[in-house]
Amino acid sequence: MERRTSLILGALFILASGLMYSVERVISIVHWSALTHTGSFPTSPPPPSLLDNLFIPLFLLVGIIFIYFAFKRNGE
């Protein structure tokens, strides 16, 4: 695999990880907002953890590995 391809894949995996985390945060806030109309709700929305969704740390790790190998090949 070429260096450029590895860098692009690494960046895409990291962006996908960040996008999934952001979507989970938005869903958490929308869910909390829907709960406020029921009358019993927590005072603030519960923030999701990075480890709630298995794919977020997995995609982040794969992206970092792709970028690491892209720069490692550059030095050889």
Overview features:
76 residues; mainly alpha; 2 helices; rod-shaped; membrane; transmembrane helix; transmembrane
Describe the protein's topology:
Elements: H1 3-36, H2 55-75
Structure description:
There is one protein chain. The protein is mainly α and 76 residues long. The protein has two helices and no strands. It has helices at residues 3-36, 55-75. It is rod-shaped.
Short account of what is shown:
The chain has a domain at 1-36.
Mean pLDDT: 87
Strand content: under 5%
Please give the radius of gyration in angstroms.
18 Å
Largest sheet: none
Strand tally, please? 0
- Residues in helices, as a percent range: over 70%
One letter per element, helices H and strands E, the order comes to HH
Distance between the termini: 14 Å
Shape: rod-shaped
Tally of separate helices: 2
**Structural class estimated from helices and strands:** mainly alpha
Q: Runs with pLDDT <50, length 5+?
A: none
Keywords: Membrane, Transmembrane, Transmembrane helix
Transmembrane segments: 7-34, 54-71
